[in-house]
Amino acid sequence: MAKQPVDYGALLSSIEASFPMVQILDKDGNVVNKDIMPDLSDDELVELMRRMVWSRVLHDRSMALARQGRLGFYAPTMGQEASQLASHFAFKKQDWLYPGYRDIPQLIQHGLPVSKAFLWSRGHAEGNNYPEDLHAMAPQIIIGAQYIQAMGNAVGQKFAGKEDEVTFTYTGDGGSSQGDVYEGMNFAGRYKAPIVFFIQNNGYAISTPREKQSSAATLAQKAAAAGIPGVQVDGMDPLAMYAVTKQAREWAAAGNGPVLIETITSRFGPHSTSGDDPTRYREQESFDYWEQRDPLIRFRNYLKEKGLWTDETEEELIEKTKEEIKQAAKEADQAPKMKISDFLKNMHGEPGQNTVDQIKEYEAKESK
Amino acid sequence: MANLTMIQAITEALDQEMSRDEKVLLFGEDVGKNGGVFRATQGLFDKYGENRVNDTPLAESGIGGMAFGLAVQGFRPVMEIQFFGFIFEVMDSIVGQMARTRYRTSGNLNLPAVIRSPFGGGVHTPEMHADSLEGLMAQSPGLKVVIPSNPHDAKGLLTSAIRDEDPVVFLEHMKLYRSFRDEVPEEQYTVPLGKAAVAKEGSDVTVVAYGYMVREALKAAEKLEKDNLSVEVIDLRTVSPVDYETIIKSVEKTGRMVMVQEAQRQAGVGNTVISEVSQRAILSLEAPINFVSAPDTVYPFGQAENVWLPNAKDITKAIKETTEF
């Protein structure tokens, strides 16, 4: 028999082998890859931990507020603190963030007041009315659409000759199946745009497990088809997340084009507070497995070992954060009642004839 | 004044606005070296270089996302969708995202993008190239939808569209591209968005049309002139938002109206116009409003186009029905 022209099995294995997972801290906080340890000062290490703990408290309080009916739509973040906050930690204030709806912690760390995040969740216009110096878009609802918009933003940064300024955007394992995700990466590669794309692979798109999204062994390898580098990172490891993201940002800012980072992470809770029950699609073993890999456990152990963190530090921070969140929720309660006439005025810079009539009609109703 | 075709007038508008404002960027499929499949961007790649006129990968949704992000970064993107039948691929970017941005951000962020696209039937394209889908856009709050009917308006309307602070869908009827020439001033000028034009004055009946159907309506009006019927033809020019003042003023004068669109009866913008006129001017009407449109089928196979598309004959018949009512 003649030799087969292609060894398809070997081809597939070689693709998978090209995308190993980067890790620095193991699940217990032991350093397993000293060579790539990021250059972070003690203060920076503590700050990163503070942000992750802050995010956990934000999650806990948001769940409670949602139960009380004081929040609208909320997508839980517990378990994804390293994936979200340690990646964000590598970006600068001038960088542009195009978040998905689960990326509220990064948005707030980028400069969005917590009260506005709550207003967004409640469905109030003020939640999207951002401070001028906040380089971020409102959370994207259409899965994957943020990838193509972020790409356009980065192409714009490049055309405008912006220096040391990049764009970063997040989607999930479900989002990675969207055509827009490929189009965003492919355009960004073609224009060599300064952008870092994240796929936070938390295992489930609502209930659909990762393996039903794609037969690709990794989601990082989707970068290869766009001709851009892709890397898989332990998304429960804050140091690996930070180190890989920082390098990706530098690569993009230096004019080399985009990078795709797949973070292997887990959400410990439901998809959203709108009635999702994860026990319908997820076994107890899965929760147990991932909770042992909690990013807070390993980073807490690591910092305690270095003498940088105590239980008292954490308790104090938790109480302080709870108080801040309480104040933010109160502040959100003070938001003015929305007016349909304002909506009409915000449809166009110059209203059309029919809109002018409708503005008058609603202003009359609203003045009663 | 130069004697230009509509496609030449469009190229001139793009060229002059690019030269006036360096934030204007053109991009899309084959718009660079090739100058676009209809040559709308002819010569602009050589004149302005690759950063300002560029060929994108072949993906409409990506083109829409790119326009969005570029606008956020302060550019004035003018994106081309090669044929309007491909618009479904980029509906989210245009209707879901651009059109909602000003509203979504309480006016903090506006999206000054132009979506240019050839549309309309009668030029024997392959399937999915010639649909009249302007109704889908016109029904989307937050968008302006502009359709010129002649070279002069095309230049002035496109210039206004690029300078507008909100997303504008600019639809260029393929049959108008090279079918006739018009006197077009060489200097820059604008034709306002949201304002209809009285293409021909008359006193017996008002015909409201847009795009290529304005040509057919004018043909019908000219023919009926010989029968001593005085037909007023209104060219909408912008189909969203519609200039109802001009229409109502005309209907109050003539007392009769015929709506004409190339799109199917259930599509286009005719139904909206008729509904508004019925509500605002019913007491001025001496006959039911007539409606000339294509039938409610999928856009037809190429060899059936000529019997499917409305034409001057259909319009003439409808005008007679209305005036003889």
TrEMBL record, chain A:
UniProt enzyme class: oxidoreductase
Gene3D superfamilies, per database record: 3.40.50.970
The keyword Oxidoreductase is annotated on this UniProt entry: yes
InterPro entries from the UniProt entry: Alpha-ketoacid_DH_E1_comp (IPR050771), DH_E1 (IPR001017), PdhA/BkdA (IPR017596), THDP-binding (IPR029061)
Enzyme Commission number, as recorded: 1.2.4.1
Domain Dehydrogenase E1 component: 49-340
Keywords recorded for this protein, A-Z: Oxidoreductase, Pyruvate, Thiamine pyrophosphate
GO molecular function terms listed in the Swiss-Prot or TrEMBL record: pyruvate dehydrogenase (acetyl-transferring) activity
Region (Disordered): 345-368
GO biological process, one term: branched-chain amino acid catabolic process
Record's catalysed reaction(s): N(6)-[(R)-lipoyl]-L-lysyl-[protein] + pyruvate + H(+) = N(6)-[(R)-S(8)-acetyldihydrolipoyl]-L-lysyl-[protein] + CO2
Pfam family, one: E1_dh
Keyword Glycoprotein: no
Start-end of Basic and acidic residues biased regions: 358-368
Cofactor(s), names only, from the UniProt record: thiamine diphosphate
Function: The pyruvate dehydrogenase complex catalyzes the overall conversion of pyruvate to acetyl-CoA and CO(2). It contains multiple copies of three enzymatic components: pyruvate dehydrogenase (E1), dihydrolipoamide acetyltransferase (E2) and lipoamide dehydrogenase (E3).
Assembly, per entry: Heterodimer of an alpha and a beta chain.
Name of the protein this chain belongs to: Pyruvate dehydrogenase E1 component subunit alpha
Organism name: Alkalibacterium gilvum
UniProtKB/TrEMBL annotation, chain B:
GO MF annotations in UniProt: oxidoreductase activity
Parts of the chain that traverse the membrane: none
Cofactor: thiamine diphosphate
Pfam family, one: Transket_pyr
Record carries keyword Chaperone: no
Annotated InterPro entries: THDP-binding (IPR029061), Transketo_C/PFOR_II (IPR009014), Transketolase-like_Pyr-bd (IPR005475), Transketolase_C (IPR033248)
Record's keyword annotation contains Transcription: no
Keyword vocabulary terms for this entry: Oxidoreductase, Pyruvate, Thiamine pyrophosphate
Classification via SUPFAM superfamilies: Thiamin diphosphate-binding fold (THDP-binding), TK C-terminal domain-like
CDD domains, per database record: TPP_PYR_E1-PDHc-beta_like
NCBIfam families to which the protein is assigned, alphabetical: PRK09212.1
Name of the featured protein: Pyruvate dehydrogenase E1 component beta subunit
Organism of origin: Alkalibacterium gilvum
